[in-house]
Amino acid sequence: MQLTIPQVAKLYGKHRSTVHRHIEAGRLSCGFRGDETRVVDMAELVRCYGEPKQLPPEMQPTATVTKEDLQPAMLRALQAMHQELVSLREEVAQLRQLPPPPPTTKPSSLPQKAATDDDPHGLRSLARSMFENQATDKNGKR
User: Strand pairing partners for 38?
Assistant: First the structure.
């Protein structure tokens, strides 16, 4: 929001010449509107002079929402959520009535582990295969 020099002076209780002097000294920066009127940004005013004691009418917050205004909106939202919950429960009930899908025999991409209780880590079978390979190498079969 941008304010003219008279608006700034009135808002902060300063004389217009004081605001002009601060602009000329570089303490306060300003810009120009299309009609060559000097305007000062509200953020610049807060930086230079601090928060005003009372905001200009254009910046006054709008009336707050009362409980009476909020209750119908909350009631509509609650009814919509209840309706969605009911429809989701009906959909779940319909899905439970469907037959289960047929079992698929997809080959597993992971290698199956040999389920042996006496060799849980497979070390014995690894050692056995290594000894068998050494025995076949010595006999010249390879």
Answer: 32
Rounded mean pLDDT for each run of 10 residues along the chain, 142 residues in total: 88 91 92 89 89 73 68 90 95 90 68 59 81 71 54
Compute the distance between CA of residue 77 and CA of residue 72 in angstroms, rounded to an integer: 9
What are the Cα distances from residue 99, in Å, to 1, 88, 124? 66, 19, 46
Widest CA span of the chain, in angstroms?
113
Show the tokens assigned to 102: 């047929």
3-state secondary structure of 13: coil
What whole-number distance in Å separates Cα of residue 88 and Cα of residue 51?
Answer: 53
Q: Write down the number of H helices and E strands in the chain.
A: 5, 3
Q: What is the pTM of this model?
A: 0.41
